[in-house]
Amino acid sequence: MTALPSPPALVTGSAQAFPPVVRQRDLWDRYFGPLLGGDRWAERVFMHAGVERRHCVVDPAVEDVSGWSTAARMRRYADEGTALAKAAVAGALDDAGVSPDRVGLLAVVSCTGYAAPGIDIRVAADLGFSPGTERLLLGHMGCHAAIPALGTVADRARARGSVAVLLCLELTSLHLQPDLARPAAGAAPTRGFDLDQLVSHALFGDAAAAVVVEPAGTPRLAAGQLRLLDIAARSDLASADHMTWEVTDHGFRMGLSRRVPDVLARHVAPLVDELCRRNGRDPAAVAGWAVHPGGPRVLDVVADRLGLPAGALESSREVLAEHGNCSSATVLVVLDRLGRSGSLQAGQAVVALAFGPGLTLYAALLEVTA
């Protein structure tokens, strides 16, 4: 893949919206602990996921959705997701100083809910988008979806010379599984729970994150914004079964192998090296890293294989602690935090990384504007 043609598009606005917060300790004490009989080993797994608190549209201790049908969960997704989506998109437009009627494309990414008419229609109607605004849904790609979606909206903004908006909306708390307390097929009989499901339920939270993307040359563009230079991907097709997201009669079920960090360890450095060098950048000179926090071990592996200095992934670790893994929305939350940290200077490079089913790695190279 060759570098994106010049002039590249820029991220000019960013915002997020979150449902109510739930502390990790409370989730264990009030729901998961009693469900698993207070198993101390399970408690250690749950409490060492790198998450201190999360945001959930449903608190399972108050409203246990584990027995709900997929249809009931999708209805709740539409009800809960609309307000969050509107808040994130409105916030991003306000941050960019763009009125809704100027949006040429609204792209919505989600792997946790679907409806038709969907969230895109509701957002466009309620926020006052033009009837001519185009809409695009990218569904069921998983945690890495924000980066290819960002490339798509940037291509659209550059090709048409108009504003594009990307929204990632993920409500993972709606997909609590009914069989967490039973061991998975082939699991050791000494443990009365599914370890992979426990890890998933220890990590994921809910969020809506939106960015506004505009073509370069817009007169009011300001310094310190992020210019998208290029995107690269790498899939390890032999490891496709390591991360799955299966539609079942009781919501969507996560399959998360403990071998995922090992696959990332093989591919992340060559991917970043390829992306940087074909754009004339030295990977060692990258100033900012927005890495999808799939979990503490994922971040440790990325830092180790890229030879990053201590603190390079601070924004990713903070987002994991404060919000959990919010699937596709997470890397946009990390990028926003990194951009507002005051640590970046004009001309410096930023790399965003995310990982998802496939097993697929996506990377984006961005540059801070002068």
The low-confidence runs, each spanning 5 or more residues with pLDDT under 50, are 1-5
Envelope shape: globular
Helix content: 25-40%
Taking all residues together, what is the mean pLDDT?
93
Give an account of the 3D structure.
The chain is an alpha+beta fold and 370 residues long. It folds into 2 domains: 10-215, Peroxisomal Thiolase, Chain A, domain 1, CATH 3.40.47.10; 222-368, 3-Layer(aba) Sandwich (Peroxisomal Thiolase, Chain A, domain 1), CATH 3.40.47. It has 10 helices and 13 strands. The protein has helices spanning 24-35, 40-47, 70-96, 119-127, 146-160, 195-203, 260-277, 296-306, 314-323, 330-339; strands spanning 9-17, 21-23, 53-55, 103-110, 134-139, 163-171, 206-215, 226-235, 243-248, 251-256, 288-291, 349-356, 360-368. The strands form 3 sheets. A 9-stranded mixed beta sheet has the order 5-4-6-7-1-8-13-12-11, with helices on both faces. A two-stranded antiparallel ribbon has the order 2-3. The chain has a two-stranded antiparallel ribbon with strand order 9-10. Residues 1-5 have low confidence and may be disordered.
Give a short summary of the structure.
The chain is of the alpha+beta class.
